[in-house]
Prior knowledge:
By secondary structure, the protein is an alpha+beta fold. It folds into 3 domains: 4-145, 3-Layer(aba) Sandwich (Creatine Amidinohydrolase, Chain A, domain 1), CATH 3.40.350.10; 158-295, Creatine Amidinohydrolase, Chain A, domain 1 (3-Layer(aba) Sandwich); 303-592, Creatinase/methionine aminopeptidase superfamily (Creatine Amidinohydrolase, Alpha-Beta Complex), CATH 3.90.230. The longest helix is centred in the middle third of the chain and has 28 residues, at 306-333.
Amino acid sequence: MPAPAERLTHLREELRARRLDGFLAPRTDAFMGEYMPACAERVQWLTGFAGSAGFVGVAMESAAIFVDGRYTLQVRDQVDVEAFVPRSIADEPPTAWIAESFEAGARIGYDPWLHTRAGLKRLADAAAEIGAELIALDDNPIDAVWTNRPAFPDAPVHAHGLEFAGESSEDKRLRLGADLARRNIDAAVVTASDSVAWLLNIRGADVPNCPLALSYVILASDGTVDWFIDPAKVDETVREALGDAVAIRPLAEFAGALEALGTDGARIQADPTGSPVAVFDRLMAGGAEIAERADPCLLPKARKNEIEVEGARIAHRRDGAALAAFLHWLDETAPGGTITELDAIEKLHDLRTRGERFHGPSFDTIAGYGGNGAIVHYRASEETNRRIEPGSLLLVDSGGQYDEGTTDVTRTIAIGMPSDEMSKRFTQVLKGHIAIATARFPTGVTGSQLDPFARAALWADGVDYDHGTGHGVGSFLNVHEGPQRISKGHSTTALEMGMIVSNEPGYYKTDGFGIRIENLVVVYPVIDIPADAEKDLLGFETLTLAPIDRRLIDPALLSAAERQWLDDYHARVLEEIRPMVEDPVRDWLERACAPLDA
């Protein structure tokens, strides 16, 4: 296999043959998802960079790879910096690189299936300022020089039963179609694979960690659907479940179908922030009137129905039993200094596989000991793997995919005796976690309005954490699901009943230790509201069931109400998980869930 520098040479030869002066390559695929199949990992093949976010710009005399702050060190370890100059995507963005690297008249290629409309506009404006032009390509030039490129995934699709989905695909399609009709929209283009999965009540296995079948949908206002997917992946059981109102068509027909929508001047809804710009190009080529609106599945998918919420509770009980067994194992083995981060990851996965209806992790497990735990998106490898031994903290962030739901949980565990500093910071993080868990708020409140609750105890001490407090979570779907979130960034999406979000404040001391406490919570209506309340109130039900390490808590820093919340939470964990485990895990769980003053 050629080295990255040689691959770059072959790519430049391909660009010259196409009369192009450069090429722009974001790390994404035509479905714009967080996880991609191997055949779409073009940035990794070209550069060697394996991070989850990146952007490559190639000119004839220079090339650059753009990453965010998570990958400053990783990019230099994995990439030939003589061939691809690392740049901060925030401080030295691709727009600035375009101005530096090209001259007037330059023709810069791009793959219209890999850029959103909003993202491409910024790049096109930067090119226009210097008199250069962006050129949409019919095929990706990296694919032309990628030898032994993996095939597009062919995993079979399976039906996601009504006992898990809580609403039939027909009812979803008719409900969303009627909404389109009310707004005089003839059809909506749905390009997010998790939205397709939710709408059709199907699941797949085309990408790591998320049960997705990579495909597209055109939803008509009468509730009928054209589903673009390899027909060989759809068996008779799925076809019968969907019925005649869903036409299964080859993925290769999608572009032509978009153009055909415009022949009668149809009004078509498409998402400018989540769909490839190619969707808009094809719709306009056919003469369609485009209504730029968010994916119609986005909010309905986020509002979990009663069956999905109950499924989440079931999934978290199963996950809690595996976590109890893992935490017991860790307490028994870690003090001896014989296990590593990779050992912990393997053990937790093994314990989850023993549970019912488990399909795999919901993301790659993070297990960071000591200073590695201070790296927010750390991934243990053979090169970074550390031995777990007394003297610091182990942060474990993991999750599972179950038929009933998706889990995501972080626990920070003391290995040996924690320092006073560790206990102080852990307790401040816990105070923020409890503040979110116990929040009561009027309808219409967004997650950005709640975010300061989680940070107040840390802010008072002059410290903070540089990530969001919470992200949305799917129902046996993506572990990161929008549009709901809890973060500093302004959010216009109000938290609504049935939405599941994470509650995960943290603290990170560079080269020292990392702390994060994460539970998933679901929004529910508060019943016992004051008699003179002027608005309905919402609150959170905690779904995750796993002990919080009492050895790290400084009780003097907790209020009476906070202590009561912790004791009540642990009593609930013990009540729900104890019947699912056996000794010696059961004995350990009883000790781990004892009242704080016991």
